Amino acid sequence: MSQPARTLAAGTVGTVETRYLDLPEPLHLDCGRELHPVRVAYETYGTLSPARDNVILVGHALSGDAHAAGLAEAPPAASTRDGFGAEDRDSAGGKGLGWWDGMIGPGKAFDTDHFFVICTNLLGGCRGTTGPSSIDPATGRPYGSDFPVITVSDMVRTQRAFLDVLGIERLAAVAGGSLGGMQALEWAVLFPDQVDAVVAIASTHALHPQGVAWNAIARDSIMGDPAWQGGHYYGTGRAPDGGMGVARMVGHITYLSAPALDDKFGRRLQSGDDLRYTITEPEFEVESYLRHQAGSFVKRFDANTYLYTSRALTYFDLARRHGGGSLARALDGVAARTLLIAFSSDWLYPPSASQEIEQALRALGKPVDFQVIEAPYGHDCFLLEEARQTPIIRRFLAQGRAG
């Protein structure tokens, strides 16, 4: 199997610092509760135009954060660079790189010579934005499982309130992969007169039942860990690392494809050619790989954030929420040009889901471009196949500038 296409040669945004902004007003959430105060962690790349009309908002996936590009001023202990074989690709120098560094910067897909790119950590996050690990002003202790249940719509309204503080009324584009693509689509539906273009990559209008099921298994593995303590494990000296590790293993496997795993590991044993006859230690290389992924993830991510974000993406359903069960009705008010990119081997967010969006938009007479990239790495392709996405996105965004 060939290796993923490397990022096109281009510049870097350099060293960046994550900044923080406190929203002035309470957030009204879909669950009926209000949340205040709310802090948003964010990073920006490029230069804001005098007319403030060159802004691209990038949304991250479940395990991402605001550090999308460049080198972190203070590199984290564990890298946020996800994707199959990220450590092999980036080596030790990748620890401080943004999770989509190959896509954001001068000459890249989201070209900072033309655009001012913003990435925020999502509502419910654990990397600077208010979430379950934040202090509940009513108790003086971390929210834990008292944090309100949130939706993708809540995340998008948080981003809208954040941009209001910055004085940014309109977006040249909203872009993202996976959960980030859900945010982009939600933006186009919730705020149709404020978005010029949508770039939704490896995403969907509603997660298929198999995806809902895998997410349920991951959440149950966390909540079934006695160290979860009903969600109030902060400050106790115990955290549900065991359950969180299993959740990460489950999630990571859903992001890959069978051919990619076979090519990378096959049935190779961890220790030479002989079985060790053990049930407690990894016997196969793929088992060792998954344990390593789990161990790295629990060092940088909060289990409650995983629960809340996973629930939000399973709730996401454009047709149910905005169209009375009809995807066409949900998308009827969309005014943005839309680019949909899917990957042939992605069985978690399959190309058929993007095709359903394309067909609905086309039937409504909306401008839409749908591209399927043949690649073997499953859902992780949106993080790996940067070079093959780049010309498609650059061309799409250039059409908007020309228009």
Architecture blueprint of SSEs:
Blueprint: E1 15-16, E2 19-22, E3 27-28, E4 34-35, E5 39-45, E6 55-59, E7 71-72, H1 86-90, E8 104-105, E9 110-111, E10 116-120, E11 135-136, E12 141-142, H2 152-166, E13 173-177, H3 179-190, E14 197-201, H4 209-223, H5 241-254, H6 258-264, H7 285-300, H8 303-315, H9 318-322, H10 327-331, E15 337-343, H11 351-363, E16 368-373, H12 381-384, H13 386-402
Parallel strand pairs: 1-7, 6-10, 6-13, 8-9, 13-14, 14-15, 15-16
Antiparallel strand pairs: 2-5, 3-4, 5-10, 11-12
Helix pairs in contact: 2-3, 4-5, 4-8, 5-7
What's a quick, concise take on this entry?
By secondary structure, this protein is an alpha/beta fold. It has helices at 86-90, 152-166, 179-190, 209-223, 241-254, 258-264, 285-300, 303-315, 318-322, 327-331, 351-363, 381-384, 386-402, and strands at residues 15-16, 19-22, 27-28, 34-35, 39-45, 55-59, 71-72, 104-105, 110-111, 116-120, 135-136, 141-142, 173-177, 197-201, 337-343, 368-373.
Would you give an account of this structure?
- This protein is α/β, with parallel strands linked by helices and 403 residues long.
- Helix content is 35%, strand content 15%.
- The longest helix has 17 residues.
- The N terminus is likely disordered.
Q: Which regions contain 5 or more consecutive residues with pLDDT less than 50?
A: 1-9
Distance between the termini: 40 Å
Tell me the number of helical segments per DSSP (H or I, 4 or more residues long): 13
Percent in strands: 5-15%
| Order of strands in the sheet with most strands | 2-5-10-6-13-14-15-16
* Arithmetic mean of pLDDT: 93
Radius of gyration: 20 Å
